[in-house]
Amino acid sequence: MTEATPAEHAAMARAIELAARGLGTTSPNPVVGCVILDSSGEVAGEGFHAYAGGPHAEIVALAQAGEKAKGGTAVVTLEPCNHTGRTGPCSQALIRAGIGRVVIAVLDPTDAAKGGAETLRESGVQVVSGVREAEATRGNVMWLSSVRRKRPYVIWKFASTVDGRSAAEDGTSMWITSEASRMDVHALRGTVDAIIVGVGTVIADDSRLTARNLRDGSLAIRQPLRVVVDSVGRTPENAKVRDGAAATWIATAAEVGADAEGRVDLVALMSRMYERGVRSALLEGGPTLAGAFLAAGLVDKIVGYVAPKLLGGGPAALMGAGVKTITEAIELDVTDVDRVGPDLRITAVPKREN
After folding, report:
1. Which residues are catalytic?
2. What pLDDT is stored for residue 171 in this prediction?
């Protein structure tokens, strides 16, 4: 049998749901979900990778399945690892458990961990791959994209009025969007490894840039790294981003490297962040830094919160993206439009030439 059965397709859909529970806590590892079916096709165990250094999804699911795993099927969103890191190879654990068949959504692209499917086959385990691959890829896109390109997956988040203004003419911007949108942003912060802002935003807004519950002000258990792009080191010593609530990196041109205009080289910054274990980042401000990221082709996804308001003046949400004429416009594929309180949340990805 080389094709996945209906039961295995259903189990993979469940494994993809389980994998999502690890978003924001597994980096620099991927999110992975696993479902063990016993020899009769019934669910015997489930698991997901919850945190870096913790047991992998397959190990959790095998522990739950126990003896029922023997002769059964492991349905897993990512190819079982084939190396020993902080944990042992999952391919060997599946073999020891007596699993007879493994159904995989996405093959592992990393040199260190790939090869699990071949190891399983060499041990007589039947392996099927590519099952619900597109869905599993979407669920793990930040990690997959990052390890393939050796830079973080970058989400640009902005908030604006319907006429594209990020603040009024007098500079006031609190609050353009609703509390519901701001809570949604904090949830989004909790899924990434880093938050990136420019020093101008730090000076103007003095935000903490933490992931927290707006209802009671409590901080999330895991905080993303706060990265301030600050070419010449202007971040005030008493800025809230230095408050110790989360790790902070003031990235200067002297440390990271400078571009032709003496500013922080963004490509070099991405490489340095990847070296630090950052696989995903939320770019939050301001409009000039966002423009520079877009001009450099470093934005992978856009999440815009648009308030049903008009200002008729004030700074735009985006500036300096390298677009001089309409034929140079950065085209987007809109993947989702949803209501968040009174606001619209628009999710899109830049179209890129192959």
Report:
1. 58
2. 80
